[in-house]
């Protein structure tokens, strides 16, 4: 997406990757599915608030990336497009976030909780 200059789509995809990875963590940890942005963020906070493996930047990722999704999906006019730099940073942060969620899921497997 970055190579073909679809920066809005890249920002949206960065968010969705993190959102779905977090849904996986929640599902592994609770056996339930959470479908809303606010529900996913609340559960993520609950699971990771005292976990030193998840730093403040990772905890803030979904909120920041959601802003990119909102911009891509709903905003119009000047300044409403995701810049190449912001899109690239979002993709980089998303990769780190998804890797951490994967690590947490793998650690939770077999224990029944996160």
Explain this structure to me?
The chain has 114 residues and is mainly α. It contains four helices and no strands. The protein has helices at residues 7-30, 37-48, 56-74, 84-108. α1 crosses α3. It is elongated and about 45 Å long.
* Strand-residue proportion: under 5%
Q: Assembly type of the shown chains?
A: single chain
Distance between the termini: 33 Å
**Outline type:** elongated
- In total, the number of strands is 0
Unreliable residue runs: none
- Tally the helices: 4
The overall average pLDDT, rounded, is: 92
Structural class, by secondary structure, is mainly alpha
Helix content: over 70%
Largest sheet: none
Which features characterize this protein?
mainly alpha, 4 helices, 114 residues
In short:
By secondary structure, the chain is mainly α. The protein is 70% helix and 0% strand. The longest helix has 25 residues, at 84-108.
List the helices and strands and how they pair.
Elements: H1 7-30, H2 37-48, H3 56-74, H4 84-108
Helix pairs in contact: 1-2, 1-3, 1-4, 2-3, 3-4
């Amino acid at each position: 997406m970055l190579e073909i200059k679809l920066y809005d789509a890249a920002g949206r995809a960065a968010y969705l990757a993190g959102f779905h990875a977090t849904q996986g963590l929640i599902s592994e940890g609770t056996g339930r599915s959470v479908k809303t942005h606010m529900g996913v963020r609340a559960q993520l906070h609950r699971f990771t608030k005292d976990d030193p493996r998840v730093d403040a930047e990772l905890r803030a990722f979904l909120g920041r990336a959601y802003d990119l999704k909102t911009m891509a999906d709903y905003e119009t006019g000047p300044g409403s497009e995701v810049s190449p730099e912001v899109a690239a940073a979002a993709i980089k942060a998303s990769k780190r976030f998804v890797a951490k969620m994967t690590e947490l899921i793998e650690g939770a497997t077999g224990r029944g909780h996160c």
